[in-house]
Amino acid sequence: MIYLDNAATTSLDREVLLAMEPYYLSVYGNSQSQHSFGRQAAAAVQKTRDFIAGQLGCSPDELYFLSGGTEGDNLAVKGLCSYIGRGHIIVSGIEHSALYDSVLQLKGQGFELTIIQPAPEGIIRPEDIEAAIRPDTIFCGVMAANNETGVIQPTDDIHSICRSKGVFFFSDCVQAAPYLPVFASMADGLVISAHKFYGPKGSAVLYIHGGTRMKSLITGGMQERTLRGGTLNVPGIVGLGAAYARCISMQETVNPYIRSMRDTFVQRVLSEIPGTHLNGSGPVLPSHANISFDGCAGENIVFSLDLKGIAVSAGAACSAGAVTPTRVISSMLGLERAKSAVRFSFGKNSTPEEIPIVLDALKDSVSRIRSV
């Protein structure tokens, strides 16, 4: 089996699993409990909180442990907007559905909404954000790097604009964190999720700038300073910290390795398979290659490659099973390009030897689909 869907999720590093194991089997106390089991668990949580805070450059009290990027996106926009009560929201048209669908819900509750569409290369222009800001704008959301195309967004410029206008700026950094430095100075709020960098599923951390007032979405406990009730996932939090430490330490060597494979693959697909188009350009993550194939439905290529033992995707993993073309590619390049788009995402466990195997399978799949 060849796995080229690392943008959806990554495998769990064995070293991370070993770091988590004691908190399943021996140090299994509730971190809120006052006995020694609980104190040990609480100490592990605090150690991870302090480590992540040191990496992001923020206070530990500005971090909240959650179940994933989806919860982080929801909490950031709904928590802030629910506290304020009314106002104008700006988001990009390339946001993950966790944020995009959240703002559509808020629009239905009376908030006003502006969606900024990308340029054809997949970039959100800072000047478009600036032009959309109004006196009543309270929230702006633009992800650090897109989960489908890998295009890196100019979040520093957008944050500067929002800061000068007094607008809270949130950036979903889930897709960016495995490959790019992530700092609290990038935004007023951001989220990263462990399963994108070889950590456990169900563990994420949300940064919210100190002093920001928010309403909780999950009540019923005093955890996470009352912003997020519920027993903390201690093994998952430990795993998040262990995985992020490994990720940061390996980026300098892993990123060029992944990019070399990705670039070789893209060059060969575009030169050896007629009627192919790369979706997204400019600064792009080293892992992502989103390619459209004329005369093919992206889902058909995914299914065909799966039968040949190769895992890829036709959009975001969270939209699996959907029959509608990807919203992100549609907003960039139109419906036809979106219908035929396939995402290939490389990881540190990918190998150069897999590329010719995937190419041969892809050529056969495209030829068969086009002949029908």
Structure description:
With 372 residues, this protein is of the alpha/beta class. The chain contains twelve helices and twelve strands. The protein has helices spanning 14-20, 22-25, 36-56, 69-84, 97-108, 126-132, 155-165, 234-272, 298-307, 327-333, 335-339, 354-371, and strands at residues 2-3, 63-66, 88-92, 112-116, 137-141, 168-172, 189-193, 204-208, 276-278, 288-293, 310-311, 341-345. It has a seven-stranded mixed sheet with strand order 2-8-7-6-5-3-4, with helices on both faces. β3, α5 (97-108) and β4 (112-116) form a beta-alpha-beta unit. 48% of the residues are buried. The mean pLDDT is 96.
What's the story with the biggest beta sheet? 7 strands, mixed
Q: Segments where pLDDT lies below 50 for 5+ residues?
A: none
Overall outline: globular
Termini distance?
A: 27 Å
Q: Strands of the biggest beta sheet: in what spatial order?
A: 2-8-7-6-5-3-4
Task: Name the average pLDDT.
Answer: 96
Helix content bin: 40-55%
What's the count of strands? 12
How many helices in DSSP terms?
A: 12
In a few lines, what is going on in this structure?
By secondary structure, the protein is an alpha/beta fold. It has helices spanning 14-20, 22-25, 36-56, 69-84, 97-108, 126-132, 155-165, 234-272, 298-307, 327-333, 335-339, 354-371, and strands at 2-3, 63-66, 88-92, 112-116, 137-141, 168-172, 189-193, 204-208, 276-278, 288-293, 310-311, 341-345.
Give the topology:
Layout: E1 2-3, H1 14-20, H2 22-25, H3 36-56, E2 63-66, H4 69-84, E3 88-92, H5 97-108, E4 112-116, H6 126-132, E5 137-141, H7 155-165, E6 168-172, E7 189-193, E8 204-208, H8 234-272, E9 276-278, E10 288-293, H9 298-307, E11 310-311, H10 327-333, H11 335-339, E12 341-345, H12 354-371
Parallel strand pairs: 1-11, 3-4, 3-5, 5-6, 6-7
Antiparallel strand pairs: 2-8, 7-8, 9-10, 10-12
